[in-house]
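Lab meeting, item 3. Inverse folding demo.
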């Protein structure tokens, strides 16, 4: 029903400009809307026909087009007669589901551009083959084989077939050249367009006036061939850009679509009433009061005005421990409400939230231009002027002896020396690598970071949230005398499943891993439970069979939480990490049943990633704000020689600057707000996707996945990318060094110049396309992965985990 709000229609449709004069109680005259939806449940063309018939049967639906291939529908409807919920309900009655295609028009624009490029390429290819067929007799004919009438007919046929190439396929080049002339600038399309026009004009003159100065030979075959191969390179480049854009779009929509807002806040005036309505998140305004249920994400930055809960801010801070949030505390968009319903006042929305910065990351990669590409552009621009002057000089030199040859030598120089390959060499490789990384969960914010990453010889890791996972793991448990380990763990898990706290989730996961039954199958069933924020759980459980289990009564009062909450003494000495108690009520008071020792979970792939980096010539360091003993224990387990704990952000930055002053190229892998300065100070930096947006905005790479191996693969791909860039630049330079003298001396005909120039651009694009296959794998590292495996997170490693405060 939210989609019936006119403010929502722009999110998945647009007015067509046509009007309907049919009366409505809201509008006397309203526009006709053109909307797009994605369809679920359809499998064939018959499904498409069924949906079309269902939509067209709805009064007010003017048109309905369904594509079986894309599983999308276009619906043209009149708001005066029907609303989106009504025609979507018609789809549901037909047995399918319609969802708003909110990004339809962004993708459609890109797809339309791709379709136009493909049509130009197809037309150029078809015309090229036809023109070559008509030109072939002139190449193989001996003197006297072709009559003048036949040769004239073949030329006229070639001219007619070349017209679509010039008028349609060459359109982008000619328009770009006209803009260059109007703005008095020189770009790569200018010499190309000049070469195309000169070739077509002199060939046309030769066709109309065979006895004139240019009638000896026509060059329609060279023109069409040149355009075809150039469009091939451009189309492949466009496809690579599309793949990059599509991968980046896949990480959007992480905030809730709708939220409960107080009805007294419809105009952003705030309100404390209990009457709430569900509205789209986009309609929130500063001052609104919204209700966030347990398990929902906070839709904006704001302040708690009612209730108390724990917030999981791992998405934004990288810290695994949930933080208590009560009245007056601030909450951040994208974090999760774990415990109870709360009301919050909106302080910042949209672009004002820190979460919105991740959306900016998705656009930055396509807008960035690498340093090598900037250098190539600087070289290309003066080179273009030299090309134009060289072409003019060649025409002047050859004109006295043969005007026709002079013109074609000039065209050959214009075409063969166009630095398309030089300018494509870097950006096409960088964008391909960025798209490959994005498809595997790594956003490239700064394309120059790929250049810097390829030269890195030192990599600095943070510990918490980077070498360790976001969350806790049960490392060990101490059962009270006379208690069975499995029984007390099952009881603890029964309570823990009622909470979203990281400790509770760790206990529930441990019970599941141990294969312990859940629910009544464990012998007990939950009767009532109450969670006290920041303390633990109080619960009453009953025996599933109605009688006690062993020596236990049929009804138990249990507590799970801190020793203070359970009112018992700890069963084991305090160790690094976090511990919780399970206790039961007796006539003499509370009695401890078990103590559970938890710690941060060391990533199982961390050991072999570090070994692979070291084998690749990258020195690995560990700098953390956690206790030195815990940091050194982790470093020893992972094979890191240089490690330092108790570091402030300033200490980390000073350590990095010292390494940089010694001539090292340093990369930083961090997570959390206090990593911002060191991420900004490194030559290149990584932030994991659960880091705060501030850290992400300062990082060159954002790892959205949960695998540390993505860092290793990014390093390897950056090295391969720089190698491809060097190959492309070397090829472009060698090609120009050989072809320019040949063209100036008149030894390179126009068709060969066009083929050479187009082939050089195509070769550069295809060479870069090799980067799109897959992420590289460090074979030496992978050979040891099996021995690392899950064993990388051994009990000994748990001793090195951070305490409850989770130092960085």
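The presenter then showed the designed sequence:
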């Amino acid at each position: 029903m939210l989609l019936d709000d006119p403010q929502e229609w722009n999110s998945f449709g647009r007015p067509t400009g046509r009007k309907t004069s049919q009366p409505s109680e809201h509008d006397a005259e309203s526009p006709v809307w053109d909307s797009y939806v994605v369809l679920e449940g359809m499998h064939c063309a018959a499904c498409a026909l069924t949906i079309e018939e269902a939509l067209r049967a709805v009064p007010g639906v003017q048109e309905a087009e369904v594509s079986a291939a894309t599983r999308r529908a276009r619906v043209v409807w009149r708001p005066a007669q029907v609303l989106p919920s009504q025609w979507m309900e018609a789809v549901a009655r037909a047995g399918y589901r319609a969802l708003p295609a909110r990004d339809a028009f962004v993708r459609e624009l890109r797809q339309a551009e791709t379709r136009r490029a493909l049509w130009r390429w197809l037309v150029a290819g078809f015309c090229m083959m036809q023109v070559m067929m008509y030109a072939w007799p002139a190449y193989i004919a001996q003197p006297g084989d072709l009559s003048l009438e036949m040769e004239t007919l073949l030329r006229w046929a070639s001219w007619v077939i070349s017209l679509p190439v010039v008028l349609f396929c060459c359109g982008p080049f000619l328009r770009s050249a006209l803009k260059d002339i109007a703005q008095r600038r020189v770009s790569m399309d200018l010499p190309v367009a000049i070469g195309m026009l000169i070739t077509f004009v002199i060939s046309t003159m030769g066709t109309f006036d065979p006895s004139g100065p240019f009638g000896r030979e026509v060059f329609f075959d060279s023109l069409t061939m040149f355009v075809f191969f150039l469009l091939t390179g451009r189309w492949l480049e466009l496809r690579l850009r599309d793949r990059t854009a599509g991968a980046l779009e896949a990480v959007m929509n992480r905030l809730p679509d709708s939220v409960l807002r107080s009805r007294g806040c419809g105009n952003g005036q705030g309100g404390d009433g209990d009457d709430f309505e569900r509205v789209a998140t986009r309609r929130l305004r500063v001052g609104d009061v919204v209700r966030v249920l347990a398990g929902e994400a906070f839709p904006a930055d704001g302040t708690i005005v009612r209730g108390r809960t724990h917030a999981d801010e791992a998405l934004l801070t990288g810290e695994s421990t949930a933080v208590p949030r009560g009245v007056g505390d601030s909450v951040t968009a994208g974090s999760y409400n774990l415990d109870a319903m709360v009301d919050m006042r909106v302080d910042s929305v949209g672009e004002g939230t820190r979460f919105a910065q991740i959306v900016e990351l998705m656009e930055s990669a396509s807008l960035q231009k690498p340093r090598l590409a900037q250098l190539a552009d600087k070289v290309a621009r003066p080179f273009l002027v030299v090309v134009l002057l060289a072409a003019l000089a060649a025409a002047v030199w050859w004109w006295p002896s043969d005007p026709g040859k002079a013109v074609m030598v000039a065209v050959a120089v214009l075409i063969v020396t166009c630095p398309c390959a030089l300018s494509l060499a870097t950006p096409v490789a960088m964008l391909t690598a960025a798209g490959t990384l994005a498809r595997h969960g790594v956003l490239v914010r700064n394309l120059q970071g790929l250049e810097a990453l390829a030269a890195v010889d030192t990599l600095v890791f943070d510990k918490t949230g980077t070498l360790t996972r976001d969350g806790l793991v049960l490392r060990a448990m101490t059962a009270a005398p006379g208690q069975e380990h499995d029984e007390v763990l099952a009881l603890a898990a029964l309570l823990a499943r009622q909470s979203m706290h990281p400790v509770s989730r760790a206990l529930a996961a441990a019970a599941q891993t141990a294969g312990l039954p859940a629910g009544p199958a464990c012998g007990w069933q939950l009767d009532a439970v109450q969670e006290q924020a920041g303390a633990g759980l109080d619960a009453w459980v009953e025996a599933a069979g109605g009688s006690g289990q062993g020596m236990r009564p049929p009804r138990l009062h249990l507590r799970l939480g801190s020793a203070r909450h359970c009112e018992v003494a700890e069963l084991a000495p305090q160790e690094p990490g976090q511990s919780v108690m399970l206790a039961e009520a007796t006539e003499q008071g509370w009695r401890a049943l078990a103590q559970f020792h938890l710690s941060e979970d060391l990533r199982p792939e961390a050991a072999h990633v570090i070994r692979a980096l070291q084998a690749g010539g990258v020195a690995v360091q560990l700098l953390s704000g956690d206790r030195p003993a815990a940091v050194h224990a982790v470093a020893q387990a992972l094979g890191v020689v240089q490690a330092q704990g108790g570091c402030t952000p300033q200490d980390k930055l000073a350590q990095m600057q010292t390494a940089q002053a010694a001539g090292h190229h340093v990369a930083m892998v961090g997570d959390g707000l206090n990593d911002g300065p060191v991420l900004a100070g490194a030559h290149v930096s990584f932030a994991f996707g659960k880091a705060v947006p501030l850290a992400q905005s300062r990082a060159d790479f954002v790892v959205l996945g949960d695998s540390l191996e993505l860092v290793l693969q990014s390093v390897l791909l950056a090295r391969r990318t720089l190698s491809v860039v060097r190959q492309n630049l070397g090829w472009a330079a060698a090609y120009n060094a050989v072809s320019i003298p040949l063209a100036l001396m008149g030894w390179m005909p126009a068709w060969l110049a066009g083929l050479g120039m187009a082939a050089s651009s195509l070769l550069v694009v295809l060479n870069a396309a090799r980067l799109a296959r897959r992420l590289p794998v460090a074979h030496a590292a992978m050979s040891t992965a099996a021995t690392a495996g899950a064993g990388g997170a051994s009990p000994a490693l748990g001793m090195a985990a951070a305490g409850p405060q989770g130092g960085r």
